[in-house]
Amino acid sequence: MSNHHHVAKTQAELAELFSQELTTGVGRSIKHDSADKQVSGEAVYIDDRLEFPNQLHVYARMSDRAHARILKIDTSPCYAFEGVRIAITHEDIPGLKDIGPIMPGDPLLAIDIVEFVGQPVLAVAARDLDTARRAAMAAIIEYEDLEPVMDVVEALRKKHFVLDSHTHKRGDSVTALANAPHRVQGTLHIGGQEHFYLETQISSVMPTEDGGMIVFCSTQNPTEVQKLVAEVLDVPMHKIVVDMRRMGGGFGGKETQAASPACLCAVVARLTGQPTKMRLPRVEDMLMTGKRHPFYIEYDVGFDDTGRLHGINLELAGNCGCSPDLSASIVDRAMFHSDNAYYLGDATVNGHRCKTNTASNTAYRGFGGPQGMVAIEEVMDRIARHLVLDPLDVRKVNYYGKTERNVTHYYQTVEHNMLEEMTADLEASSDYKQRRESIRRFNANSPILKKGLALTPVKFGISFTASFLNQAGALVHIYTDGSIHLNHGGTEMGQGLNTKVAQVVAEVFQVDFERIQITATNTDKVPNTSPTAASSGADLNGKAAQNAAEIIKQRLVEFAARQWKVTEEDVEFRNGHVRVRDEIMTFEALIQQAYFNQVSLSSTGFYRTPKIYYDRSQARGRPFYYFAFGAACAEVIVDTLTGEYKMLRTDILHDVGASLNPAIDIGQVEGGYIQGMGWLTTEELVWNAKGKLMTNGPASYKIPAVADMPIDLRVKLVENRKNPEDTVFHSKAVGEPPFMLGIAPWCAIKDAVASLADYSEQPLIDAPATPERVLWGCEQMRKLVAARTAAAEVETAAP
Ligand code: MTE
Ligand code: QUE
Ligand code: MOS
């Protein structure tokens, strides 16, 4: 970059550079800023940080009961182990004992009752993790077992809820159902999902002065960790600094549940005065932390001969686990997405928040949206089988219209809907019709191996539905050498947020990306931040950073106009240079002049999303600033004797507006698709009768591996379509929406199975469609066909 010994360039040379385009601003596929470091191993995660002297390691002893009263805790045996510094229970917590993010329900260490297998009961700090673990296991805990509720349906029937139910309602669905030409009812179980971030939950804490702490925490929500650490220590928030450079994946799992290790470390650090670290081993992480909410769905739907919906009743029962956590908003988002891309007609959607004795389920990519969308996609397939139509035709006939039938069941108008065009594009580019025919022919001639095909849309609402969270801050400094320091409230978890925000700042100043140093998210640089969630990290923080950069740029423009007696319009930034009327100088030359002339070169920035509001008491409003759209077409082959399947080909068309970085966005689309597919196919969570999660490691919990990728994967972004709303450079959020493209392979599997009964019956295959469930689906179809044949024979035999 800047070279102090360079030979001054001539005006002609400067003019030549000025005339060229910046190649590292927005819209460019520049490499993720951590990519090289991640490949070489130089990227620093919390466990890679240099350790402080006298650092303690913390291990939490977990409940082995799903629901029990604690009769006695004796930590004295822990101290028999050499190297143990302290063993703590809830009684040792100096301040608040509950770290529930919105409402109480999550004791840092169990108080009197345990509510799931895996709940932390006590914690031991020792000079190494192994000693801490052995000591913690030596503590004596006596329980009196209580009756657990493990089943979401049982919880629903008993109205065993963590929070009240909520309803979205439009029109009179009861009458619509009664009058509809066709009507079907059904149920569906949708499984949960383990986050399986590569880096498990981890924090390390260093006590500072005045009772303060610096907390290094792998969290999507540094401000909330700051607040909770302050609360458990009973100190003001200004004593606590949270620093977060990068996560080894978050996927929603580090939105609230990163706080527990941070708070335990802080309590130990307070009690001992020593630096403290807590890193969850994989099995402990899987037992202790919540997952995607499993859902149980009941539907009752009325429709006409074309498959068009007249009305629907939907019961969405989220299995929240043992506490509220974020379940209010998660089940709300499931309800908001139970239309996916479709006009529901007269609709009643009820959302329930069921309490079970499992870890408290939490945010996971899509935040309830995927579960709501799976429910309505199951309904679409079911209608198609009932009418023996191509499911794609049923989907298309139900799409939201452009000028009519374009209002959701929560009364937001669907504007700028691109799905009709995108579906037509994808249908053509994927050769849907022709492949549909060739698959029919293949299946007719192949008794065992059956192919399936499905094309499903995605419409995903962008914004936090809790409107106040839609705000962000940033902090930009330009140093006297022209180098730029960038900080914002968002967190990097692999999604490329820092790279995108740096591109935004590069674009505003028209300087090379390399000139900008990305720094750790830190609560004493940008305060009061929202979690990096709801896919709005780049939307919110990009705008805040743009605002900060534009404030500084405006000062520079005003300064240059003053200094060289030109108008502001005469000052132009481009490709690392600045033109002041006819004179061209380097960016750093301008910065030096500005500094000598006492111009402030640092600014905060702020952004709040306009236009959105939501009145929950009326269940009406505009909770989303805009929608992101996508569509996927998946082809699969199923072995109907074993239930095994293979992904043959997937075509994706996804809408990211004017992409900030197409390479990163395509990575998000591919990753989201595969993660969504894993959720609905091989990732199965199994608890035993005592409430212990049995699938608690990679040997038994199967996330997609390389071999599970579709053999042929074709991803395209919609081109030349800016976001019509005023988002950061008219881009669209990309983090979560592609996850729901993973519904296509699930529907394709069911399509293959339905071929066994000539596509006239929907196999009941709950999610995930593991090979076992697929095999049961095949058995259903074969029994059905056998029964039909027998009935036909009886009929022909009759006189
Ligand atoms: N991509 C990677 N590589 N790692 C992650 O943890 N989290 C997802 C998505 N993509 C995630 C990811 C989730 S749940 C969200 S909400 C968004 O990224 C958050 O980042 P963004 O708002 O900056 O897109
Ligand atoms: C999507 C999200 C979140 C959300 C709503 C969404 C989310 C989140 C919250 C939330 C709500 C209320 C609170 C709070 C957080 O809402 O991640 O602290 O008081 O944390 O539509 O991803
Ligand atoms: Mo993402 S589930 O909103 O962290």
From TrEMBL:
<dbReference type="GO" id="GO:0004854">
    <property type="term" value="F:xanthine dehydrogenase activity"/>
</dbReference>
<feature type="domain" description="Aldehyde oxidase/xanthine dehydrogenase a/b hammerhead">
    <location>
        <begin position="40"/>
        <end position="147"/>
    </location>
</feature>
<dbReference type="InterPro" id="IPR046867">
    <property type="entry name" value="AldOxase/xan_DH_MoCoBD2"/>
</dbReference>
<dbReference type="Pfam" id="PF01315">
    <property type="entry name" value="Ald_Xan_dh_C"/>
</dbReference>
<dbReference type="InterPro" id="IPR014309">
    <property type="entry name" value="Xanthine_DH_Mopterin-bd_su"/>
</dbReference>
<dbReference type="Pfam" id="PF02738">
    <property type="entry name" value="MoCoBD_1"/>
</dbReference>
<dbReference type="Pfam" id="PF20256">
    <property type="entry name" value="MoCoBD_2"/>
</dbReference>
<keyword id="KW-0500">Molybdenum</keyword>
<dbReference type="InterPro" id="IPR037165">
    <property type="entry name" value="AldOxase/xan_DH_Mopterin-bd_sf"/>
</dbReference>
<dbReference type="InterPro" id="IPR036856">
    <property type="entry name" value="Ald_Oxase/Xan_DH_a/b_sf"/>
</dbReference>
<protein>
    <submittedName>
        <fullName>Xanthine dehydrogenase molybdopterin binding subunit</fullName>
        <ecNumber>1.17.1.4</ecNumber>
    </submittedName>
</protein>
<dbReference type="InterPro" id="IPR008274">
    <property type="entry name" value="AldOxase/xan_DH_MoCoBD1"/>
</dbReference>
<keyword id="KW-0560">Oxidoreductase</keyword>
<feature type="compositionally biased region" description="Polar residues">
    <location>
        <begin position="522"/>
        <end position="535"/>
    </location>
</feature>
<dbReference type="InterPro" id="IPR000674">
    <property type="entry name" value="Ald_Oxase/Xan_DH_a/b"/>
</dbReference>
<feature type="region of interest" description="Disordered">
    <location>
        <begin position="522"/>
        <end position="541"/>
    </location>
</feature>
<comment type="similarity">
    <text>Belongs to the xanthine dehydrogenase family.</text>
</comment>
<dbReference type="InterPro" id="IPR016208">
    <property type="entry name" value="Ald_Oxase/xanthine_DH-like"/>
</dbReference>
